[in-house]
Amino acid sequence: MNRFPGKTVLVTGAGSGIGRAVALAFAAEGASVVVAGRTAAPLDETVALIEAAGGTAAAVTVDVTDSDRLRNLVRESVDRFGSLDVAVNNAGILRGAVPVAEVSEEDWDAVLRTNVTGVWLAMKHEIAHMRENGGGTIVNVSSNLGAHQRIPNAAAYLTSKAAVSALTRAAALDHIHQGVRIVAVSPGAVDAPMSLRPGETAADRAERMKTENPLGRVAQAAEVAEAVLYLASPAAGSVVGADLVIDSGSSA
Question: I want to staple 221 with a disulfide (CB 3.0 to 4.6 A). Which of 21, 114, 126, 175 is the partner?
Fold first, then answer.
């Protein structure tokens, strides 16, 4: 398939995991991809993978908690490739695997600032451009943990991702009439470092998932990417404010 020829796609948190898989998938279907994140080296690796497969990409370092840098990120994306058609807000962190009363104020602030305020700031600048330039689509990466499922000792992360799910719906209602369509995906455990427990190996996780997860395995990042591409495509034109859970049945 070649669903995004001539389109420009911005992906935050694109140096690894879901973000990298999303960037690779869009590039494979004709998009020019701007890969953004805090650290240059993994972003450059993502660009190299895209270019090796014949795609087009550019890397931009950015802290999603910095409003000015996000405004410039949108501008740089448009200056480089001529438009901004799709944005995937994927950057996020996980800290403080302890009960609520033991969560440090530093960890709480860092998680909420990155996972919630970072998504809001990114949308703020993405929407400002899109609504003045023919519209676009935004896909926020939330989580099955939060609005859909809870686990112990993850209060900051749960709160942040529940907020992303709610923020996505609110933004979708506010801006669909301006031609900006906003949706979310909520992955569960994915074959990425964040789904490993402390000291756990990938083999340990695979064994745990056989009994912990209805499907019996973690999702692949490429499977989440396929869902993101569908939601960003014209085939999903009437999908507004949806929050698609991709968690192998964990929250069913």
Answer: 21
CA distance 10 to 159: 25
pTM: predicted TM-score of the whole model, two decimal places: 0.96
Domain boundaries, the chain: 8-246
- Beta strand pairing status for 86-89 and 136-141? parallel
Q: Per residue in 123-171, pLDDT tens?
A: 999 999 999 999 999 999 999 999 999 999 999 999 999 999 999 999 9
Question: In angstroms, how far is CA 65 from the centroid of its own chain?
Answer: 15
3-state DSSP assignment of residue 243 = strand
- Non-local CB neighbours of 161 within 8 Å, separated by 6+ positions: 92, 115, 142, 143, 145, 146, 147, 186
| Residue 55, beta-bridge partner list | none
**CA–CA gap between residue 191 and residue 142 (Å, rounded):** 16
Return d(Cα 180, Cα 161) in angstroms, integer.
22
Q: Tell me how far apart the alpha carbons of residues 180 and 131 are, in angstroms, rounded to a whole number.
A: 6
What is the average pLDDT score of the chain?
96
CB 160 within 8 A of CB 118: no
Three-state secondary structure call for residue 182:
strand
157 is catalytic: yes
CA distances from 150 to 66, 159, 252 (A): 29, 10, 12
Q: What percent of the chain has pLDDT over 70?
A: 100
Q: Which of 18, 57, 157, 250 is catalytic?
A: 157
Distance of CA 195 to the CA centre of its chain: 15
